[in-house]
Amino acid sequence: MGIFYQLAQNRVLWTGMLGWAVAQLLKVIIVLIKSKRFDPRRLVGTGGMPSSHSSFVTSLGLAVGFTQGFDKPLFGVCVVFAFIVMYDAAGVRRAAGKQARILNKIL
After folding, report:
1. Consecutive sets of 10 residues in the chain, 107 residues long: mean pLDDT of each?
2. Would you say the pTM of this structure is higher than 0.85?
3. Which whole-number Å values give the CA distances from 67 to 45, 75, 81, in the listed order?
């Protein structure tokens, strides 16, 4: 079987991608509710809540847990990977917030 067929059958990968897509769609809906305007750039843009990075790695890890078992080493790797991604994403958001405050003071 070809690689594209195998990728199409990979439910763990599709679950992670679905988690990312739902987070991105929620960003569009939240902007629509808050600002009363449709911003399709939020579908592919970075930043904002909910975090698509966190959604991706969380759904990926849960899919591995449900398919392979929560007692398997691969699930442990996914949990560590998820914590690293979420910790890093939080740090980047914090640093961007500090930088924005400083730039606003300068301006």
Report:
1. 88 94 89 84 73 90 96 96 88 78 83
2. no
3. 31, 10, 18
